[in-house]
């Protein structure tokens, strides 16, 4: 057909190569979103299926790298598709990497000015010193600045050098593995286990005489999965049995401590290095009656251990019935690959009598 004067110009034909490039960008964007949603769902099987366990302890931030390529590619090729890699990046940053928004604190009851529930306050600091044989000044400064009611430290071989041993107003109990300093009198101590690799974990119960009544504080360190995960990241062959055994051991250790905690009456806190990320099935299976202080009142990723190019939240403060969480945060580096966890709790009553 011959074009007549005044007819609009025909739409330009898109070269076949350009069409295929745009389709490829769209397909990659969609595949990326599907993949990260699949990873998010897979994480729910942590400590039930060993590939999910490796993923939970691995460098999840690597999943954000494709967005750095796909977002510019979509802007240049198929602009309307840019929302897909952006949505995938949000999934990576939020549920996959574990960014926490403290919904219970935002919508729960509390003081209208501070958001803190009314009751008897109690601040606890917990930290794994990772077999350190020194007493770092940074830790002393942190304790002086935060004014915790109780300091529970695991694997601190240098605790004999702690300034808290001679500081006025502190009650201290220490073994070669566990250290507990309290501003309230320590009325009783029971060592439950002496080895983080044993069936009873490295654990102790401390009975503190506080204005809220006797507070039963459990400090523990369960078996590490670090070496098994690192071997799996290098070579996935013959690692499944080791990782499954480690998951089973940590579950058994948690169940033992949870059983001993269930024997207590009144306020119960369980703190320390669980070597277990929050996605693990161990938490709903064993610790269902407890509140994770960071999940309830902390902002951000809250990673407490850094190593092998990644961070993971494996140190926790769990509060039994009758506690409310006013705030929780991860402290600075004080000389350990672990970071201290500081939780502001309020005893409002209602625990087992």
Structural description of this entry:
By secondary structure, the chain is of the alpha+beta class. The chain has 2 domains: 16-96, no CATH class; 103-347, Deoxyribonuclease I, Chain A, CATH 3.60.10.10. It has 10 helices and 14 strands. It has helices at residues 16-42, 50-57, 65-76, 83-96, 103-107, 137-146, 226-234, 240-262, 282-286, 293-297, and strands at 120-132, 150-156, 171-174, 178-182, 186-194, 202-210, 213-221, 268-273, 291-292, 305-307, 310-312, 315-319, 323-330, 341-347. A 6-stranded mixed sheet has the order 3-4-2-1-14-13. Helix 1 runs parallel beside helix 4 (83-96). The termini are far apart.
Element order: H for helix, E for strand: HHHHHEHEEEEEEHHEHEHEEEEE
Gross morphology: elongated
Distance between the termini: 92 Å
If you average the pLDDT, what whole number results? 90
Question: What are its keywords?
Answer:
353 residues; alpha+beta; Deoxyribonuclease I, Chain A; 2 domains; six-stranded mixed beta sheet; 10 helices; 14 strands; 25% strand
Task: Explain the layout of strands and helices.
Blueprint: H1 16-42, H2 50-57, H3 65-76, H4 83-96, H5 103-107, E1 120-132, H6 137-146, E2 150-156, E3 171-174, E4 178-182, E5 186-194, E6 202-210, E7 213-221, H7 226-234, H8 240-262, E8 268-273, H9 282-286, E9 291-292, H10 293-297, E10 305-307, E11 310-312, E12 315-319, E13 323-330, E14 341-347
Parallel strand pairs: 1-2, 7-8
Antiparallel strand pairs: 1-14, 2-4, 3-4, 5-6, 6-7, 8-12, 9-12, 10-11, 13-14
Helix pairs in contact: 1-3, 1-4, 2-8, 3-4
């Amino acid at each position: 057909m011959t074009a007549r004067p005044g007819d609009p110009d025909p739409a330009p034909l898109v070269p076949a190569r350009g069409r295929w490039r745009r389709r490829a960008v769209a397909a990659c964007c969609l595949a990326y979103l599907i993949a990260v949603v699949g990873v998010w769902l897979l994480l729910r099987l942590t400590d039930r299926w060993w590939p999910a366990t490796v993923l939970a302890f691995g460098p999840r931030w690597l999943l954000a790298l494709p967005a750095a390529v796909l977002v510019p590619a979509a802007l240049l090729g198929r602009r309307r598709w840019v929302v897909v890699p952006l949505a995938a990046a949000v999934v990576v940053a939020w549920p996959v990497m574990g960014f926490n928004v403290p919904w219970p604190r935002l919508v729960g009851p509390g003081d209208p000015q501070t958001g803190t529930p009314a009751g008897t306050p109690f601040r606890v600091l917990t930290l794994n010193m990772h077999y350190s044989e020194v007493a770092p000044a940074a830790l002393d400064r942190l304790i002086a600045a935060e004014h915790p009611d109780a300091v529970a430290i695991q694997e601190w071989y240098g605790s004999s050098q702690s300034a808290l041993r001679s500081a006025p107003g502190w009650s201290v109990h220490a073994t070669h593995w566990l250290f507990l300093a309290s501003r309230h009198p320590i009325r009783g101590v029971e060592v439950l286990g002496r080895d983080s690799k044993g069936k009873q974990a490295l654990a102790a119960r401390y009975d503190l005489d506080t204005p809220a009544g006797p507070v039963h504080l459990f400090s523990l360190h369960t078996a590490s999965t670090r070496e098994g995960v690192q071997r799996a990241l290098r070579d996935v062959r013959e690692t499944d049995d080791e990782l499954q055994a480690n998951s089973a051991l940590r579950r058994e250790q948690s169940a033992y401590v949870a059983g001993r905690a269930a024997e207590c009456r009144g306020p119960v806190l369980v703190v320390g290095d669980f070597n277990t990320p929050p996605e693990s099935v161990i938490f709903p299976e064993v610790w269902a009656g407890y509140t994770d202080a960071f999940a309830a009142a902390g902002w951000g990723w809250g990673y407490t251990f850094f190593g092998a190019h990644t961070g993971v939240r494996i140190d926790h403060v769990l509060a039994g019935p009758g506690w409310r969480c006013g705030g929780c945060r991860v402290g600075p580096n004080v000389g350990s690959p672990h970071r201290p966890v500081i939780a502001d709790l309020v005893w409002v009553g209602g625990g087992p009598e």
